[in-house]
């Protein structure tokens, strides 16, 4: 159940700064495109900037660059929305974690903040910390009514599972918008889209990468773990999995394909970012939602949706 | 921890370790060895990794044993343990800190070497994950799904997006400048050196001291900026 | 003034802890300097600021206040008030020129006879180390 | 001027060996107040005391200084001695020249000088002492017991059996508390209602006990021996006299509300009694749910049915005022909300239940008649998992403390499960087993060894639901490996916490509570049932987690403490109390903030607000005296003037030439 006290703290603005994610831009650009389309329909502006770089969280949490060394990079990125006077929406659990945790760290360590701002000053920037960093699923629940108004194609009969990812709900166990073990915000959004949320036992289990395992360690840890999750999903017989993080999307989507290739399993369940789902319900052209970047096939799901469209029209 | 011989506890070492790593190690004192993290931990379910045991080992002063272990690199970083922990111990963050310690002590480089190119990309291009896809299977599947070449640039174009995500030239210059003055560039170079040097000899106690002196460096990092 | 400076110290000791601790130091015959004259009070929280002023104006070279350890106060939180007030008194007396070494607030429990002797010795040595009476006493004598 | 006598004791050689006693006597004589001074071998002995008495009579002394051992040792002795000679006992002081001097000094001259100083200080103080009387307070011979659980019932019976009247106030419609909900009790497994119900009836029928159920304490004023309490009696809507407890009304009420007593496993009507053996056995109408009250007089079925015309919808809450001499608080505990543990799925999965629900499920008079079955499909569970420490030892979600009873209660639950389901698999996941009590460890061993209960060390991480089974995921810390159990029933031992309204009641009573809401005892070891407010005592779980034997012992202890007050016609106590000088008091009431015992009240003096110390409540700490910005507070025996006299006395050396004075003279 969403936490009312956190809900209350989430600002509803006319315009936000959209913090782009490297993973999304380069592997699943449909996330960005779908997000922009959806926000346009619900009348909320999104500002982007080519000055914004990677959040640098990945190299930090994989132990390559030290925490304190990446601090100025965080501050530089956040100085952009600070200057624009906008609150920031992140699309990725990782960006959210990194920007939030390090923003807090800077706010609580004025001497370091001072040094960081001195460095930024040399390139004409300043980090004030005024821009509040939000997660996509902080904001969407607050706009549920406006989303509902735009749903022209309720996705009736579509059975959808969720995967929230660990780095938002688990990492912020007391401050996240929803409970880490029984969250429902995305389920509620699925219902707004007219589809049916489906529970499965391993719903709150990590995707299997946990940031590092598939990259820096060996796959033999990640794949058996993933198998556990997908076995549980298979029993639930779903049409798709809704995620709120591009990295989860990457891992679940490519991991499936990898397991098929290795003959471990035989799933082909498409993985969708939450705004891609809402986009479908709003009748946005699937091509513009970018399912072409998926490695698993979204074909069956889209066909189902297509049929619905006919019935609803 | 992978060792099987009986080990002496080194409680006298613990006070030395306690103040390392932004207080994360100190936080471990709160652990009551309840094991809730282990039941939640995906890595523990698959390997001999056991966060509860690891915490106990650190508290017993056997940090060297932890930082030289392979298990340190098994953590998924999923934070499930943190979400579950009745004492709010943020173990994955502690692991991150211990991994630095491991690298500085010459143990963990092999596990992170695949990441180094990403860090280089960040420095050169402002992004850690870049667009070009090399895996033919992935491209093939995408081609089948999208009716394009399966190349990301084409898929982006199909959606009306620029063929490649741009980072402004100013931004790149800024990132590089900041990286240089904050000492990050140097850190990355150090990492390259370590990678090329390969695993080092394992003089444990000395390594722990090295970790400590790294901490000293943290406090001094703005100084490097003056030198710059 | 020279090394035979033999200071007079006023002790304000809480009945339940430090006074009893001093008793125990006696019962167990732990020798220590005899410069302090103890006054029994119900609780360190009873110490009014003017007890210190009077003492110094009258010619005391030091004032030692003893109470129960935090969380051990017989009256639950008298020693917290003592601590708060003591900080205030200390800065006031500092202002009129009384050295901080001349004042102490220590926690000694009824079972800490050895600790009593120890802190009193330390305190007495500290006052002796100043080698001359307090400013208030000197001024008082001049006027 | 006072006429002071000084008596210097040798204490055998204890003092005399290090202190020149004769010299101390001699120097004392030089003090203007001293009219008589002498020494003696053992002043505390009978002849020593006689010496004092004789001197008082002979020299008309009106002040005495005994230079001897610590006052903590012999002050009462010498107070008695002077009283024997007709002198007010509060006009004697002791100079401690043994513990503080002869025993710790190394130099005879120095020790003698110190003794002279100490005597002079005391002489100056004695000159300022005033004769005092013991404080005497009247006592109302009646007790109030708040809370009618096993602890409250015990305290009420213990007091009433000495012939003293007791008011027993219980919030719920019936007394009995939590114990009434259990089937069996550890470690002996005797039937809870078999041992509790007779006591409930005894309390209800006791000629000295007045029961006020469905009532709460609204206000308490006054002080020890003489409290005035206001009790709010909620409108029961059913006449206690007319109702015969036939229960006809209960059957027909159309309203269905989950029964609190059955932990939500069964329903009750708006007119209800918590359980069939309720005491009193008279139902109440719960106005928050009754249709008659919610919908302007619609319904009224129960009134039509009642054969004795006992139902009356018109009454309102009533407030009665009573005088009592002592109060025992026994308001017990309630349960931690298990739904906060979303990882265990309480509330989401029907077969994850709380331990109170388990008690009701296994209780022969419970909603299933004692049949242990799943709530989802009514099947007998084949695998049962108990999870310890839910809400306890968990600062993240619950409380850091250990609830103390749940390891044992879980062992009991497991044994009960075994007796009902001989073939079931029973697991109990714990962090540590806390079984410190008489027969407790043995009981747990019995569960493990004889009843085949698997106790596994490890706090479970998740309970998942899959195809009607519950998957419990945990570490088995013995092997260091994670494990899973496919369970049919999961029981959460959601620990004990203080009553939600505990702080409010504490405010009404003026007693302290800790950060969790448990009432604080005056001293954890030596005054475990007293509170900071004299005359108010604690019993049972309201003071902290404990089991039934401890609750009952504490209740008897609280009763004994209350009887110390109630058995007397008057209370006498030392006059070491604070007093407000109303002329000086500005009424800022700062003093009230520092008084831990809430002894300071507002008063009026010449149409101004001023502070007033209640001498019955004041414990004589002096915090307020030191705190008052206007010097309006004074304290008996240790007033400012007296302490100043001691300080200045130290430096008031009789004549400039006299040897051996204080530091000032040695300059
Ligand atoms: C599941 C479970 C099983 C247990 N099994 C055992 C066992 O087998 N053996 C054992 O020794 N112990 C057992 N215990 C412990 C036992 O329940 C307690 O020790 C005991 O109930 C404490 O008694 P009490 O009178 O202090 O509190 P309670 O039983 O809680 O009684 C308090 C009473 O005060 C009333 N009250 C509360 N607030 C007010 C107010 N403001 N005004 C008036 N009245 C008020 C309440 O309505 C209640 O009637 C168990 C505990 C639990 C949770
Ligand atoms: C090592 C240790 C440390 C402890 N520390 C703590 C602590 O820190 N805090 C705490 O709360 N508890 C502590 N305890 C527990 C505590 O000691 C007991 O709870 C407490 O002493 C019990 O008091 P008692 O009066 O019942 O028994 P005892 O202290 O044993 O007193 C019994 C008295 O009866 C006398 N006696 C015996 N037989 C007879 C007879 N036939 N006739 C006449 N007299 C007799 C004995 O000589 C003795 O004086 C500790 C216990 C131990 C063993
Ligand atoms: S599910 Fe995987 S990618 Fe997603 S947040 Fe968790 S670890 Fe990160
Ligand atoms: S859950 Fe927390 S307290 Fe328990 S063993 Fe793990 S780290 Fe320690
Ligand atoms: S963060 Fe690491 S230790 Fe914690 S649960 Fe995940 S894998 Fe296990
Ligand atoms: S009047 Fe109220 S209590 Fe009586 S039967 Fe109707 S609803 Fe029930
Ligand atoms: S029907 Fe009347 S007499 Fe019978 S229980 Fe109800 S109120 Fe009492
Ligand atoms: S008694 Fe046992 S179950 Fe209860 S809180 Fe303490 S350790 Fe946990
Ligand atoms: S602090 Fe002093 S002046 Fe103020 S109300 Fe109390 S007694 Fe009166
Ligand atoms: S002396 Fe202590 S107890 Fe008495 S009124 Fe003053 S503060 Fe309260």
Outline the structure in words.
The complex is a heterotetramer of chains A (313), B (228), C (143) and D (667). Chain A is an alpha/beta fold and 313 residues long. Chain A has helices at residues 4-9, 22-27, 30-41, 57-61, 67-84, 93-108, 110-122, 136-139, 144-150, 166-169, 185-192, 219-236, 246-261, 274-281, 286-289, 299-312, and strands at residues 15-19, 45-47, 87-90, 133-135, 159-163, 196-198, 240-243, 271-273. Chain A has a 4-stranded parallel beta sheet, sandwiched between helices. In chain A, strands 6-5-7-8 form a 4-stranded parallel beta sheet, with helices on both faces. In chain A, helix 13 (246-261) links the parallel strand 7 and strand 8 (271-273). The longest helix of chain A is centred in the first third of the chain and has 18 residues, at 67-84. Chain A is globular, with a radius of gyration of 19 Å. The mean pLDDT of chain A is 90. Chain B has 2 domains: 3-107 and 198-227, Fumarate Reductase Iron-sulfur Protein, Chain B, domain 2 (Orthogonal Bundle); 130-158, no CATH class. Helices cover 59% and strands 0% of the residues of chain B. In chain B, helix 8 (91-104) crosses helix 15 and helix 10 (116-125) runs antiparallel to helix 14. Helices cover 45% and strands 16% of the residues of chain C. Chain C contains 5 helices and 4 strands. The longest helix of chain C has 18 residues, at 78-95. In chain C, 60% of the residues are buried. Chain D is an alpha/beta fold and 667 residues long. Helix content of chain D is 28%, strand content 24%. Chain D is built from 19 helices and 34 strands. Chain D has a 5-stranded parallel beta sheet with strand order 10-7-6-18-29. Chain D has a 5-stranded parallel beta sheet with strand order 20-27-21-22-23. In chain D, a hairpin with a 2-residue loop joins strand 11 and strand 12 (226-233). In chain D, helix 2 (46-59) crosses helix 3, helix 6 (150-160) packs parallel to helix 15 (548-566) and helix 12 (406-420) packs parallel to helix 13. Chain D is elongated, with a radius of gyration of 33 Å. Residues 656-667 of chain D have low confidence and may be disordered. Chains in contact: A-B, A-D, B-D, C-D. At the A-B interface, helix 2, helix 3, helix 4, helix 5 and helix 7 of A face helix 4, helix 7, helix 8, helix 10 and helix 11 of B. One iron/sulfur cluster binds at residues 238, 243-249, 283, 305-306, 308, 310-311 of chain D.
Describe the protein's topology.
The complex is a heterotetramer of chains A (313), B (228), C (143) and D (667).
Chain A: H1 4-9, E1 15-19, H2 22-27, H3 30-41, E2 45-47, H4 57-61, H5 67-84, E3 87-90, H6 93-108, H7 110-122, E4 133-135, H8 136-139, H9 144-150, E5 159-163, H10 166-169, H11 185-192, E6 196-198, H12 219-236, E7 240-243, H13 246-261, E8 271-273, H14 274-281, H15 286-289, H16 299-312
Parallel strand pairs in A: 1-2, 1-3, 3-4, 5-6, 5-7, 7-8
Chain B: H1 14-18, H2 24-27, H3 36-40, H4 42-46, H5 51-59, H6 63-67, H7 80-84, H8 91-104, H9 109-112, H10 116-125, H11 136-146, H12 152-158, H13 169-182, H14 184-197, H15 204-219, H16 221-227
Helix pairs in contact in B: 8-15, 10-14
Chain D: E1 4-9, H1 21-29, E2 34-40, H2 46-59, E3 63-68, H3 71-84, E4 92-96, H4 98-102, H5 108-128, E5 135-138, E6 142-146, H6 150-160, E7 165-169, E8 184-185, E9 190-191, H7 192-205, E10 209-212, E11 215-223, E12 226-233, H8 248-252, E13 257-258, E14 267-268, E15 271-272, E16 284-285, H9 291-294, H10 301-305, E17 318-324, E18 326-329, E19 333-335, E20 352-354, H11 355-362, E21 383-390, H12 406-420, E22 425-430, H13 440-449, E23 453-457, E24 462-466, E25 469-476, E26 481-487, E27 489-494, E28 496-498, H14 502-509, E29 536-538, H15 548-566, E30 570-573, E31 578-580, H16 590-594, E32 600-605, E33 608-613, H17 623-627, E34 633-635, H18 640-651, H19 663-666
Parallel strand pairs in D: 1-2, 1-3, 3-4, 6-7, 6-18, 7-10, 18-29, 20-27, 21-22, 21-27, 22-23
Antiparallel strand pairs in D: 5-30, 8-9, 11-12, 12-17, 13-14, 15-16, 19-28, 24-25, 25-26, 31-34, 32-33
Helix pairs in contact in D: 1-5, 2-3, 5-18, 6-7, 6-15, 11-12, 12-13
The structure holds flavin-adenine dinucleotide (2 copies) and iron/sulfur cluster (SF4) (8 copies).
